[in-house]
Amino acid sequence: MSADRHSMAANDKTRRMVILSVWAVVLLGLPLWWKTTRVYRAELPYDSIDQWNQWKTCQPKFPIRVNLHLSETKQQQSGNNPTLSDVTQGVIRRVQELNTAHGVKESLLAVEFIAGKPWTGSINKDITGKDKIRFYRTSTVPGTYDFYISPSNVTHASIRSQRQGFIQVQSWNTDHIIDTIVETSGAVFGSEERIIRQLLNTNEDTQGVRKVQDQLKTVKYAPGYQLTFSLFSGDASNGVREWKMQEVIHGEAAVPLVEKTKPYLAPFIKTMSTVSKFTIESQIQHYASLAFTPQLDSSSQEYYLTPDALPNFINAAEWSLASTVSSLPSLNFLTYVPKPSESPLVIKTGPGAPKSTTNSFLIPRWGGVAILNRDTDRTKRAEEHPEVITVQDLEPVMRVFLTQLRDLMGVTDLSTTAQSSSSFPIVFHKSLNEAPTTWELDNLLRRRSAENLVDSLATISSLARLVRDTPNMVVLDHIQRDVTDALGDIGRSCQHLSRQEYVEALAASRDGLVKSETAFFDPTMVSMLYFPDEHKYAIYMPLFVPISVPLLMSLLREVKRLKEKKKQAQEDKDKDSQGHDDRNIKHDKQE
């Protein structure tokens, strides 16, 4: 009997050791399994991102210096004429009063008026003479301008291309001079102030209105763009075999030792290189027929396209627009030569309506299209090369493309905004080579810097929200590093802006934009290391359920046996105690 009990006790001990060893393996393996299957997540600087979104780390400022130069011609004749210091102090005081009246606590486009050197001469005489222009100070620093004020019969402002403004004042007294300077400054910088304030506004509704109204045509900023000029010929019967686009773009001579043509695009690209770089290519494609048939106006014998048909003008199914593989955003400029059976082809609203003067249209954020109608009478071109589209043919087309490129790049025409907000004429002079003026370039530098700051922070904030809302998303160290570096570039750009270093500010904001987009679109963010909880359950349940059921059942049975054994031992103990008591009672009775 004792041997059986000893054997049963040994078996129970062995069984318990087996169960305990299996459970020990499971309990020790669970942390290892959790560690090896856990998604790695580097910590992002959430606090810094939140502070930047509210502009608490650094509030972007766009300082502008305006040097005022007052004519001495009248001052020398009488001692009652205004002084430069009085005019400067009066302009500063008047601007502060206007900001207070409009509820502007602090202007983002902080215009600082400084008393410059007095000057002599007459604007009517000097600004038209090449010999006199050297006496005017020309600023080479973006954001620093010179206003020259002199008396005249009429109030008038002339904004030159090289950061110069010439203001003629009819009433030569301090108050009228101050009013004219303040109004000129508001007309030149007021629209830019409103745009930048809307850009930096954290209100999402305001940003949405701004994006719809102001960025409908402008392409998203990029460090570089690819310009593709394409010639699409509707039919080979029109005889087009070649076009002189390279000569028009760069001003190259078609024939050696021949005078070069006027370069239309090269000056624009050279000036805009401060903002973005450009690569240029051209191509020709024949038999590029339209996807629809133009309508015929019998009164003028012209085929025409209505504005409703223009969205379907690009035959994407048959026209090959991409000629090379490039990572740069592409802007397409398409010259379409209709086939003789559909020529001349014009754009107008209907029969008898006036036709478009440029015969072209702009496709927002994509490019532009110009329709070129060639002379179908070959006898008029007998001595020329009818199969070649000459420089003279392309000059009006290139002027249209240059205007469209300005709109796509966001170059603001200041004359349109200034005339609507001024009580006297303000003339903005264009550059002689069709390139953006220094005023337009400075405006673009400041606005693009603000856009890059906003877009960078929007991208980083979207990444932070995505990581917060998706606990199992992979966040590697290089993503954390890109986000941190992007915030650092945003901070550098903000500091450069406050020091009026607009070129450096744009470069820093460009780096921040590139790094933020690199982090957001990193392929490891959605790689195979990312498993939602549902995927984990689907993968591990077929493995763990069959194993866990026997383990749990064996553990429950062993616990049940222990309870029963403990209960049996207690009952035996009680029986032994009862028997011992009975024997004691019997012994007491016998005595």
TrEMBL record:
Keywords: Endoplasmic reticulum, Glycoprotein, GPI-anchor biosynthesis, Membrane, Transmembrane, Transmembrane helix. Pfam families: PIG-S. One of its GO terms (cellular component) is GPI-anchor transamidase complex. Residues 563-591 are annotated as: Disordered. It is a multi-pass membrane protein. The keyword Heme does not apply. Pathway: Glycolipid biosynthesis; glycosylphosphatidylinositol-anchor biosynthesis. One of its GO terms (biological process) is attachment of GPI anchor to protein. The chain crosses the membrane at residues 17-34, 537-556. It is found in: Endoplasmic reticulum membrane. It comes from the Eukaryota. Belongs to the PIGS family. This is GPI transamidase component PIG-S.
